[in-house]
């Protein structure tokens, strides 16, 4: 007897495609779940490792702080540190007058001489300049107008002029005021 198949072959193909899609989806879902579990496990381990590292670093810092506090030479180290800061401040604010005297010597005429220098709190320099006559005084002042000399000198002005006599030689004693560049006074290098 011939076998009779009551099932439709077309419906079997449709059911097979649906089963294949469902099977593929369930396998993909299982793979995604496994990957999520693996990532969650990795994140959990990484978090624990980071916490342990932080805790050990904090413990090491606390131990170092305790060792520093227990150190008998700590006060001396702090004292020396304060002294170094003060020395650095002094060196930073030191005024190098050698630069000034080198510049003023280059700007001075051979016929002029200085009787003295004074500096006020604002950094204005007052000098006593002794010259033979008014023409020499004028030449002395004109030197500071030259570009080679007016870089560091500024606001050169006469305060007073008086006649003086020393060993039968008459001269003029002129008090001048001028500003000298503070940057040049703080510069450690001597001019060339």
Description:
The protein is an alpha+beta fold and 192 residues long. The protein is built from 5 helices and 4 strands, in the order αααββαββα. It has helices at residues 9-70, 74-92, 97-107, 134-143, 182-186; strands at residues 113-119, 124-131, 153-166, 169-180. Strand 1 (113-119) and strand 2 form a beta hairpin. It starts with 8 loop residues before the first helix and ends in a 6-residue tail after the last helix. The mean pLDDT is 83.
Short structural summary:
56% of the residues lie in helices and 21% in strands. It is built from five helices and four strands.
Number of helices: 5
Q: Name the average pLDDT.
A: 83
Helical coverage, percent range: 55-70%
Query: What's the N-to-C terminus distance?
Result: 127 Å
Please state how the strands of the largest beta sheet are arranged side by side. 1-2-4-3
The count of β-strands is: 4
Break the fold down into its secondary structure elements and pairings.
Layout: H1 9-70, H2 74-92, H3 97-107, E1 113-119, E2 124-131, H4 134-143, E3 153-166, E4 169-180, H5 182-186
Antiparallel strand pairs: 1-2, 2-4, 3-4
